[in-house]
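Encode chain A's predicted structure.
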Amino acid sequence: MLNTELAVQFFLQIAVILFACRVVGLIAVRFGQPQVVAEMIAGVLLGPSLFGLVLPELQQAIFPWDPTQKTRDSQAYLFPASQLGLALYMFIVGMEFRVDVVKAHLKSSIAVSIAGMAAPFLLGAGLAAYLFYNTELFPEKTTLNEATLFLGASMCITAFPMLARIIHHKGLAGTLMGAVAIGAGAIDDVTAWCLLAVVLASFDDNVSHAFYSIGGGILFMLVAIFIVKPILHRLRNRLVDESGELSDSGLAVGLGCMAIASWFTDLIHLHAVFGAFVIGAMIPRGNITQGLTAKIHPLAVSLLLPLFFTYSGLNTKIGLLNSWYLWGMCLLVFLAAVIGKGVACSVAARLSGLTTRESLGIGTLMNARGLMELIIINIGLQRGIISEELFATLVIMAIITTLMASPIFDLVIGPATKTMLPGSSDPAIGT
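Encoded structure for chain A:
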């Protein structure tokens, strides 16, 4: 396609995606689901699993798709636009991240994180070994070590951006439960991405790539904390206008920092979302973060994030699971995910001193895979580490575990008494 043809196609796709997400959202809200869950489902529905199955010619006309990427089609712009949406959203999450609350409950966050990594990783690795020897869900060029590491990492991932959206949707931002879940989710996902770096390095037959990613990530954190953060705090008066509101220059500086951070973490194969999140946490709090969030949030959430879910949905072919055996494997993956993540995190939270209600709530929140799961398995599919059948299986697991989060959380928490955590304007769910 020519550039003008791509632009025309893009505008049509945006309209179809946004209207589809809102229609599914109207249905989802009746079942107590946040809009983000509706967007996940809408993305799959717009792909070959439903739209392409019922009206294949129309679906291909609206979303021209070449899996080999030899021609310029929807992937040429949907992918970079979706990555921008992810980075902008994680930038917002970083700005809303309360380091003080996480520090105050670091013990619980670490305990939940370790349990939420170890249990699902072991279950995922064991399941990967079974699938490797007894099925064709891993391509021939994938080794046993790569299969176990990848599926283990996929199992222990937490939907960090989605976790943040659910916490915001439930009014838990800044609360004990929200802080522990966010802290544990952040630790889990960084560790999972380090594991993925090892897998990709092994797949490229170059172990130095893993050291490059992990070392680069540590360096980035040090630079962000000890250089970027002090500079931004010194410049804070220059980022606002005479009335104290965020200026255009302040918006440009914030977005520029986000872009550089995302570029660097993408360059070292830790993904743009982590750079955006970390740099967001470095932005001076108060009128600057409030101004940036107010200007960025509507565009990122309402326009760009739905593009990512659609991009992922266009890669999902649920129809490939065409036998009871494959659906049985899908069930095994789902059970391993729930037991390894939800149950293990709940037990760890309880043992760390949290109440039973808070522990069950945290386990439920941590069990949601959503966005980050889709990111990591998309990479696995693109690199040829997993088959399309296993990709579809993991997409189903990601959607169901995320669908479970809101209703089970409401069932577990119930009409809890709401108290206030020190320094927080959001209600905390008490015992």
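Residues 106-134 form the longest helix (29 residues).
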